Prior knowledge:
The chain has 206 residues and is an alpha/beta fold. The protein folds into two domains: 6-61, Helicase, Ruva Protein, domain 3 (Orthogonal Bundle), CATH 1.10.8.420; 71-177, Dna Topoisomerase Vi A Subunit, Chain: A, domain 2 (3-Layer(aba) Sandwich). It has helices at residues 6-22, 30-42, 44-61, 78-81, 96-105, 132-141, 155-167, 193-201; strands at residues 63-64, 71-72, 89-93, 111-114, 146-149, 174-177. The strands form two sheets. The protein has a four-stranded parallel β-sheet. The model is unreliable at 1-10 (pLDDT under 50).
Amino acid sequence: MTASDPSQNQAQPQIEALIGLMARLPGLGPRSARRAVLHLLKKRGPLMLPLADALRGVAQEARECLTCGNIGTADICTICRDDRRAQGEICVVEDVADLWAMERGGAFRGRYHVLGGTLSALDGLGPDELRIPQLCARVQQDGVQEVILALNATVEGQTTAHYIADALSGLSVRVTSLAQGVPIGGELDYLDDGTIGAALRARRAF
């Protein structure tokens, strides 16, 4: 196929548009997006067409869970519908990605509440935008005994955690947070000062 082939000239803008869209994805720049698109084109039958169908289906069916904010294909997600999950524990996370990370570990068997971000005056994100009132309502209505704040150890994350703890202070619920410190398999020489300090403050009897 030569450069003057009309079919090539017609297809090129569509391919470039696909590369441009792929480049917007997290972790993909223009070069990585171009490689990904070329790979898809080479695997059009076994990969590209099924991927296109899957994307179309998810775009049409995906929605936020009305209870916790997780992403699924029903109004109430599978976690919230699961009667085997502990009713009295809610783990609060910033984003759906954090919820999925918690689920990969398989250590938590309670319910979740996705805030959708952290408090930020610059971004116009207040308690109402972060689904904090919904969290307080769930604690009151569902008889929750413990709220676990699994928020990122950033200034914004900790500010949001303190706000939530204050908002729940008048309710009969235990508010806890994830321990912070030395990860399993971590070496002290590779840790930053903040992590080492947090590990010292969270020390326990050996």
